[in-house]
Amino acid sequence: MRIPLLVRGRGIHASSADRLLRFRKVLKSAQRTTFYRHSLSHAGLDTSQSLRELQSVEETLPRLPVCEPGSLPPQRRTCRVSASNLHNPLPGRPAITFATHVNGERPEILAGSFSALILLAGTIQVERALIVITGVREGVLTSDNRDLLWSGFGVPVFEEHLGLDGQLIAHECEAHEGLHLVEQNAIWEEHAQGDLLLTSLTDLEHPTLRLRTGFSGQIHTGECECGSTQPRILDLRLRDPSLRR
Ligand SMILES: [Zn+2]
Prior knowledge:
By secondary structure, the chain is an alpha+beta fold. It has two domains: 5-70 and 180-243, no CATH class; 83-162, no CATH class. It is 21% helix and 26% strand. The strands form two sheets. A ten-stranded mixed sheet has the order 3-4-5-6-7-8-12-11-10-9. Strands 1-2 form a two-stranded antiparallel sheet. The protein is elongated and about 55 Å long. The protein binds zinc ion (ZN). Zinc ion binds next to loops.
């Protein structure tokens, strides 16, 4: 299915109607779980009719409680991530090779988790860039991590943040000023003291509603130096190490 997108400036924005449609599907999926049943009922979101009546994502979310990660039911253990899950950060869309699939060649863009990439530092040459895959499970990229990757490869580093289902939810651009939100895939909320909450708009198998990520950051809506007006998370960092598992 083709997803309608609203284009502003150089950024691609999901339309609010599309986001609402996706949000309804996630809520419908959550209605079928025992985990969310009580909170959806408390919020008056436990019937098909209540979902049809929703006016906006932003008005509805505050009706739901914040979800602590420790209370989540068991999730899938791993997600297969392919190049199609990632944002190609360079013009001309050079090929992306995963660190787990390097075979003696010289990759244009090398992608992988920080731990997978750093193992290859000094052993292979990369032509153009690194994509570091981070996420709710994997954590974020620290400035020390960046320094190590720069020393090891000498090419620009782009952080790409994935949701629990492996879908891209935020990515860095060539301006390297925060991570642009992928609005059609997730809703990020800045909660108390910069605590970031995440609601997936793609994960129907394991619905994620207002999950406390353990990260902090500021959601910024001003235009980026890259020309995009897609909102960005600035200063994304680990706030609560106890939430990492
Ligand atoms: Zn940008």
